[in-house]
Amino acid sequence: MYRAGPAWIGLVLFALLVLAGCEQPPQAHRFEGPIFGTGYHVTVYGDFNERQLKSIEEGIETALHKVDRLMSTYKPDSELSRFNAAPVGEPFELSPATAQVIAKAIKIGDLSNGAFDVTIGSAVNLWGFGPKMHPEEVPSDDEVAQALAKVDYQALKLKGNRLLKTKPVYVDLSGIAKGFGVDQVAARLDALGVTSYLVEVGGEIRTRGTKPNGEPWRIAVEKPVSRERSVQRVLELEDVAVATSGDYRNYYEEGGRRYSHTIDPRTGRPITHHLASVTVVAQRCSTADALATALEVLGPKKGMALANREDIAAYFIVKTDEGFKTELSEAFHTYLADEPSEGEKQ
């Protein structure tokens, strides 16, 4: 559903508008709802009539539910679930959308030397971060080895829209599909002629244009603490996307040890390094989403090396004995609302 509210007008701006003939700034319209096990929030600015607002609302919902219907591992009849159930070696005809996501996933898998691997599903499920709840006991070494034997994105062979697997891998697109959903909503809004918007799905964001006063969208990077929500940094964004990967909200504890939902495809186990979160800015939210996951898996040193080598705008928050320290890739400075503090390294 959507709810509309007038943009806030300061006293000085109000006086200027009165002198200009009582013109009003474009109105803010907000749409929200549940999706992907989380929620979406979309804000658009513009002078729209009820018919146009209805088209915008329907466009948002159609775009998101299509991605969910195609790529969910929680729906047994989704396209992705049907591919996972298909026999090894048998070509499976994908929709263009799913094929596009798989192609990008393979590309980022190559770029990160396998740190991003969408066949991680068997290990994700083993550790209890998939459709099933977390296990009663921590998986054994043998169980991890069995799951890891099914992790290999290079076993996916995509030709056009046809995908086959050369061994029994289980594809999980949760590290990229949410960002793709954001991109699909953005594409729909572009097609409807919306020139100022912010799309957010479960913390993944894409923006277009500026606010009516000409200011860029200001996006907060959250501090990686599980007990509260507070701001670590503020970014200024225009016509870009931003995604964050972190281990501070989705985890469980067993035997006094914390197990992160971020699984390293190279070991089949939750990550154990001290990188608390990574925020990536890119042109497409699907790209930012996947890259943030890859950098989170790689850790602070290898992740930063990849970010600087590939000109990725990335913001790292690293746990230390004294608290948190932040590190910025060379490409990230463009998006800061102010200059880095002394505690932030480049």
Report on this structure.
- This protein is an alpha+beta fold and 346 residues long.
- Helices cover 31% and strands 27% of the residues.
- The protein has nine helices and 19 strands.
- The protein has helices at 11-19, 50-71, 79-85, 96-111, 121-126, 141-148, 177-191, 285-298, 300-309, and strands at 2-5, 28-35, 38-45, 92-93, 156-159, 162-165, 197-201, 204-208, 217-222, 231-237, 241-246, 251-254, 257-260, 263-264, 269-270, 275-282, 313-320, 323-328, 344-345.
- The chain has a ten-stranded mixed beta sheet.
- A hairpin with a 2-residue loop joins strand 17 and strand 18.
- The two termini are 42 Å apart.
- Mean pLDDT is 86; it is low at 1-22 and 248-256.
Helix and strand topology:
Layout: E1 2-5, H1 11-19, E2 28-35, E3 38-45, H2 50-71, H3 79-85, E4 92-93, H4 96-111, H5 121-126, H6 141-148, E5 156-159, E6 162-165, H7 177-191, E7 197-201, E8 204-208, E9 217-222, E10 231-237, E11 241-246, E12 251-254, E13 257-260, E14 263-264, E15 269-270, E16 275-282, H8 285-298, H9 300-309, E17 313-320, E18 323-328, E19 344-345
Helix pairs in contact: 2-7, 4-8, 7-8, 8-9
Distance from N terminus to C terminus (CA atoms, Å) equals 42 Å
Q: In sequence order, what are the helices and strands, one letter per element?
A: EHEEHHEHHHEEHEEEEEEEEEEHHEEE
**Secondary-structure content class:** alpha+beta
Spatial shape: globular
Strand content: 25-35%
Q: How are the strands of the largest sheet arranged?
A: 1-2-3-7-8-11-16-17-18-19
What is the helix content?
25-40%
Mean pLDDT: 86
Helix count equals: 9
What is the gyration radius calculated from CA atoms? 21 Å
Please give the number of β-strands: 19
Low-confidence region ranges: 1-22, 248-256
Largest sheet: 10 strands, mixed
